[in-house]
């Protein structure tokens, strides 16, 4: 048992001294904790988001809602991104174009706006972190994914059937289509 005159002095993050009066009676390397640590998150956001299929050279924008589920507290947040793998860096990039930091009133939401620019074919993945500035334990990770593909161009090839030359076998004849106009049949009788 410890006398009533005992005091505990913290010397560092994991070292403490126990004194009785002026005499040091022990040094602890860790401090036992008896009690319950409670933590409640006031932030709600989806864990995964997919841009679906994006063609090389194009971009997509989207909005992801960040919800403050608290009825009384404001949510002060900031969004940061993790380093992307070297393979993903060549496929594109995600830019945060709106809502990177802010304050969300109780029972409200804000939109995080993302822009994905595709530069090479493959599977892209990046992690974003949304952190509650007032509570370091309240943080959410969003995994942003995209499948980048080459655009399929649709065209018609006409073989050169008019030539009698044997050297034109397997060649294609260029055709000038000029200006093609498509007319709607709506309203016409």
Short description:
This protein is an all-beta fold and 189 residues long.
What can you tell me about this protein's structure?
With 189 residues, the protein is mainly beta. Among the domains are: 1-31, no CATH class; 49-149, Sandwich (Immunoglobulin-like). The chain contains one helix and twelve strands. It has one helix spanning 86-89, and strands at 6-10, 16-20, 23-28, 43-44, 48-55, 59-68, 75-81, 92-98, 101-104, 109-118, 122-132, 139-149. The strands form three sheets. Strands 5-12-11-7-9 form a five-stranded mixed beta sheet. Strands 4-6-10-8 form a four-stranded antiparallel beta sheet, with no helix packed on it. Strand 1 (6-10) and strand 2 (16-20) form a beta hairpin. The termini are far apart. Residues 1-14 have low confidence and may be disordered. InterPro entries: Ig-like_fold (IPR013783).
């Amino acid at each position: 048992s410890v006398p009533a005159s005992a005091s505990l002095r913290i010397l560092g993050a994991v070292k403490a001294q126990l004194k009785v009066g002026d005499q040091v009676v022990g040094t602890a390397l860790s401090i036992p904790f008896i009690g319950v640590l409670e933590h409640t998150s006031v932030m709600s956001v989806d864990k995964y988001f997919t841009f679906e299929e994006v063609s090389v050279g194009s971009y997509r924008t989207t909005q992801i809602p960040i919800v403050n589920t608290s009825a009384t507290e404001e949510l002060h947040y900031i969004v940061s991104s993790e380093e992307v793998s070297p393979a993903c860096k060549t496929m594109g990039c995600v830019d945060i174009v709106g809502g990177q930091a802010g304050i969300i009133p109780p029972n409200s939401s804000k939109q995080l706006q993302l822009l994905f620019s595709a530069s090479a074919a493959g599977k892209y993945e990046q992690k974003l972190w949304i952190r509650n500035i007032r509570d370091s334990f309240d943080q959410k990770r969003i995994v942003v994914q995209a499948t980048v593909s080459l655009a399929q161009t649709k065209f018609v090839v006409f073989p050169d059937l008019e030539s009698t030359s044997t050297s034109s076998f397997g060649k294609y004849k260029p055709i000038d289509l000029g200006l093609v106009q498509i007319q709607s049949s709506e309203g016409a009788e």
